[in-house]
Amino acid sequence: MDVFTSDHYKNLNARERYAALIAQKEVNHLTKGENFIVGSSNEAREKEVELGYLQTDLDGDQIFEKIISTAYSPEAFSYYTNIYAPDGEKIIVDGSLWETFVDDLTGDGIKELIVITTPGHVSATYIFSYENNHLIRIPVYDEEGAELQRTMYDQNGAEFQVSWLMTREGISFEDLDGDGVKEIIMPVKNYSNEFVELTYYYRWNGQGFILYKFERVFWRNLRDATNDSAG
């Protein structure tokens, strides 16, 4: 059945509202290769190709919101993902969709949308808040408060800025200090002679996520590892 919007629901009585709710199946996580497949770039070049959708209650009103993801490739080696918000607005992110899911990161009872794409050989993470059927980009800042941004272009060539996190490793979200708000944990590996893991931590500051701690963990020297395996 079609997903009901708030306008549909307000005209139903309690029994009809409940029947409409349970008739829908919740989908709160999309993962490439598990419940969606990215088609050929030639197909995406001719038109947008729907990958899948999230259908879940973002704001706790017992109404499922629907967020659709599509792929398009306007030219060779150029891949984009379109995210369609519940209000129909199209949001463009760079790269092929790898994973998208919802989670309450800020502890306010409203779930954020996390979108992870693969533009090349890296992983890009975008975070959106939800308000009145709109998806709003959540900024990410460095330690000095400067927003981490990159320039992108829409299908008409218009320039715009996006806030994102880029790494070759997976990003995780955990409440590290028990305050009900989740931090972003972003490891970055440096494969030099000295095997180093760099871990960045981002904390919610009421407006966005800001880098608040930088920890360098020395795992081992590769020379020592070679000696250990030999001896």
Summarize the structure in words.
It is globular and about 45 Å long. Helices cover 12% and strands 49% of the residues. Mean pLDDT is 82; it is low at 216-223. It is built from 4 helices and 17 strands. The protein has helices at residues 6-9, 14-22, 41-46, 222-230, and strands at 29-31, 49-56, 65-75, 78-84, 90-94, 96-103, 112-118, 123-131, 134-137, 140-141, 149-153, 159-163, 165-167, 172-174, 183-191, 194-204, 209-221. The chain has a domain at 27-171: Lipocalin, CATH 2.40.128. Strands 1, 6, 7, 8, 9 and 13 form a 6-stranded antiparallel β-sheet that branches. A 5-stranded mixed β-sheet has the order 10-17-16-15-14.
Secondary structural class: mainly beta
Oligomer: single chain
- What CATH architecture of the domain at 27-171 do you see? Beta Barrel
In DSSP terms, counting alpha (H) and pi (I) runs of 4 or more, how many helices?
A: 4
CATH uppermost class of the domain at 27-171: Mainly Beta
Overall pLDDT confidence: 82
Order of helices and strands, N to C? Answer: HHEHEEEEEEEEEEEEEEEEH
Low-confidence stretches: 216-223
Number of strands: 17
Q: Report the CATH topology name of the domain at 27-171.
A: Lipocalin
Categorize the overall geometry: globular
User: Could you tell me how far the N terminus lies from the C terminus, measured between alpha carbons in angstroms?
Assistant: 65 Å
Helix content: 10-25%
Please tell me how large the radius of gyration is: 20 Å
Summarize the structure.
The protein is mainly beta and 231 residues long.
